[in-house]
Amino acid sequence: MKNFFSKHKRIIIFSAIIIVLIMIFTTAEIAVVTQNKIVSAGDINTCSIPTGKITAKGIDVSRYQGAIDFNKVKADGYSFVIMRVGTSRGGKDANFETYYENAKKAGLDLGCYYYTYAASAVEAKREAKEVLGYIEGKSFNYPVFFDFEFSNLMNYSRVDENTNMINTFCKYIKRGGYYPGVYTSNSIYNNFLDKRTLGVKWDFWVASYLDNTYNSSKYSKSFSIWQYSSNGVVNGINARVDLNVAYVDYPAIIKKFNSEYKKATGD
Q1: Model's pTM, two decimal places?
Q2: Please, which residues have CB within 8 angstroms of residue 218's CB and are 6 or more apart in sequence?
């Protein structure tokens, strides 16, 4: 072996240098590609940082609000509406299509939510697929929210499963080309989810009525949207309605997401 090395020393050293150089340039090329190009839709950031200040006021609605004059809603100072797309037990909300068309015509920013009765990640994935079917061809500049508040989910033994359900639903919605989010109560967020894991992956819209005035800053740096009342009175709606404030600029965030999604998928 010693004689072989002595005879081929230059060739061995030269080959080793070539291999090292190839590794260096390959690594550098990968780094450049990673820094300047989104590899896949899954790499796109879908966790915004709350500003600490109110960026917009809005409402969320379902068929229980009946007929709505969205032009009056907008004139009353509300700029976004998050409408229920459906539930896993009742299917598509009866007013979803009408709300979508009329709110869009009124120039409101739009989002939607889906109320889950799922008990497992398998069921959550099926629901996400159902949602994508309901919203196909529609555009939103607020997230598609997983409404996570069913009482059966409030069990300390379900923390891991609840967390897995949310991850599964949101990932599927994201792969479908929509910006996902999670709606839940402040109590569920703090007690029945792995909030340390989820809070760095997805945006949260939280409901808490203890401070039922939007001037409170209690949630302004923790969540993207705060639902501060379920008993609001808004022009154009002949029923009580949920009131919300946003702490992020969703139209700008989702515009960026849509652009990055197109780059990642080649659409």
Answers
A1: 0.84
A2: 208, 211
